[in-house]
Amino acid sequence: MNALVHVCDMKHLSLVILMALAPLSWGEEYVYYCVEEHKVALEPTDSGDAYEVTRYKAEKFTFKYEADANRLAFKGRLANSDLDCEACYPEIDEFGAKDDGNLFLLRNGRFIHTLGSYSVAVMNTGTCTKF
To answer: How many helices (H) and strands (E) does the chain have?
Structure first.
């Protein structure tokens, strides 16, 4: 009987230890819902000899901070690919990420995104909320 009590105590102790350590292994989700306020582009005219400003309909998108890869993964039409973090601080909701053509910055709930290529330059601004 003494051995049975010892086994039950060990199981209880193991359960308590696992419950205490479990929150340390759970990663916090950093997912943001964003709404554009303005989206403009400098695009070549039909003749191709000048550029003109084009305004686009504001859109919505989401992104998630992937801590293991240190990047932002986007869903929606903002970026064509995931962006590598240059200065991402999810604890204070501040992100700076880029690739060869995109730059995305978020601070104090406001974002700015730019995209530059050989034929077009796009800039959009808006707000993001963590959910």
So the answer is: 1, 9
